[in-house]
Each structure stands twice: as C-alpha cells, then as structure tokens.
Amino acid sequence: MGKEIYISSYIFQAERDGSNEYSDYQPGSLNTTDQLIKDLSNIDIVFHIGDITYANGYISQWDQFTSQVERITSTVPYMIASGNHERDWPNTGSFYDTTDSGGECGVLAETMFYVPC
C-alpha cells in the first residue's frame, strides 16, 4: 500500500487542559492532531492550508501550536499556506484590507515554517 498525503485547512491549536479554550473548535483540533500522529507511518507530507493557529497577534498561540504539531513536523514535511488569520492587515499587500492577522502580517507563518519558493 502506498503512502498518503494529508491536506487540511482545519487543525488550529488547543491545550489539552482547556486552559485557553475560547471557541468550540479546539477539542476537534486535538482529535485531528492525534489522528495524524497515529497515522504518521502512512503519511508522506502534510499540507496545512490557511488559518494555521488563529493566533491573531498572540505570539504564545504560535508557541503552543508548534508544540502541538512537533511530532508531526519532526517526522514528515509540513507545508503551510497562510490564510487571512496569518496574513491580512490593511495596506500590507493582502487581498483584503482586514485586521484578521492581529498585526502578524504573515511574518510568523513565513519564518516559523520554511516553505521553498
């Protein structure tokens, strides 16, 4: 049986103890992460398409997320594409002039995850 590619636009981040619960999708993100870790031997690469952490300018959310996916990113290539919550900010070249990124303007997404041009 061949290997698989996993593509997701919904992983997000969550603490197992619920200490940073602010919406109802965090528990689902842990389920997704746990399943990816269980299936790692069958996965060649992960593509995470947009809305990586929903950090919106809160740097600690990136730290938590990178800890959450460390077993995945240390085993298989993990490529991301920035979404509005990583990139959008007025007058920065984003397609939409919204404040969705909380001022991150793509810097964290583009420096924490190396993606070749």
Automatic annotation (TrEMBL):
InterPro entries noted in UniProt: Calcineurin-like_PHP, Metallo-depent_PP-like
Gene3D superfamilies: 3.60.21.10
Stored Pfam families: Metallophos (PF00149)
Domain Calcineurin-like phosphoesterase: residue ranges: 26-96
Gene Ontology MF annotations: hydrolase activity
PANTHER family per the UniProt record, alphabetical: INACTIVE PURPLE ACID PHOSPHATASE 24-RELATED, PURPLE ACID PHOSPHATASE-RELATED
Name this polypeptide is given: Calcineurin-like phosphoesterase domain-containing protein
Organism phylogeny: Eukaryota, Viridiplantae, Streptophyta, Embryophyta, Tracheophyta
